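Before relying on records like the one below, remember that each one covers exactly one chain. Contacts with other chains, cofactors or solvent are not represented anywhere in the record.
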Amino acid sequence: MNFGQYEYNSRFALDICTMLSYKEALGHKASSFAPSLLCFDRFCAQKFPEDDNLTQEISFAWCLDGRKELMCAHRMHAIREFGKYLAAVGKNAYVLPTALIPNKKADLPYLLTDRELEAFFRATDNYPHRANSTLIEYTVPVIFRIIYACGLRPQEARKLKRSDFDYQKNTIYIEESKWCKDRRLLVNKSVMSMCRKYDAIVGMKFPERTVFFPNQHGEMYGHEWLTETFHKCWDLSGIGTAKGSCVPYDLRHNFATRTLLRWVSEGKELDTYIPYLCAYMGHASFKSTYYYIHLLPEKLAAMDFMQTAGVIPEVPHES
C-alpha cells in the first residue's frame, strides 16, 4: 500500500497510511512520521509478519532495534504517535508511555579539529558504491559538504530542491525552514561549482527530478538515512569516539564556531557581525548565535562584548 513516495507492506500498512492521511488532514506534514513508520513497517514485515495488533512486545522490539543507529528515542516518539492513533480509532493497541521516552538534554557540540574534518570528508569521498543506489557515492560527499560549508540544519540540506540553486548568483534558497524563516545564502564559488557538477551527474539519471539530493527512486531522502550515513562515514574516517559521539548537526555547529574564529583573526568586532551570522544560519534570535561564544577559546571570553550579563543561554537549544 502506498502513501506518496512510500510503500508499506506489513500487516500494519493500511493503518499506517490512514494515520498519515489523518495527520495531513490536521495540517501536519506526513514527512514527520512517514519515514520512521516505513522503517517500522519493514521491521514488522520481517520480524512479525503475521501480527496486525500493536503490542508492547512489538513496540519495544522496534525501539530497541534502533539502538545501533542511535535512533531509539526517535523511534519511541513515532511508535507512541502510531499507538495513540490506533487507540483513538478504537483498536486495541499499546501506547508507549511518555515516561519511557528519554528526555535527552542537549549535548555540547563536537568541535572537530582540522585533521578530523579532513579525515571525515576523505571518508565521504570514498563512500562505497551500492548497486541499488548508483548515485550514493556522489551524493554523500556533496550533502555533508553543503551542511558544513553553509551551516545548514541537516533537514534543510535533505529538502533542497533544484530550483533553490542559482548558479549565476552563487546563492541557495532555504525555504520553509525552522521558525518559518526563509533565507537566501550567498555561497562560496567552489561549493557552487561542486553543486553544479553534482546536479549535472544526477540529471542524467533523473532529468525531471524536483529534489536536489534524490534517493534511488528519485525522491527525497529521510532523516534516518542521513543520520545512518553520517555515522558510517564517521566510522570509515577512523577518527574514533574518544571525545564522544558526533552527529550531522555538529557540522552546522562547526561552521558557526569556525566563522567566529575567522572573524576574530581578521580583527572584526563580533558584536557587530553576530547579527549577520544569526541571519545566515536562520536563528530565531541573537541568543542562539551568541551561544557559540561559549565554545571558543578562553581568550574570547575576556572580550568586552562578553561582559553583557544574560545574553548567552547556559544550555544550547536547537534553533
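Residues 249-307 form one domain.
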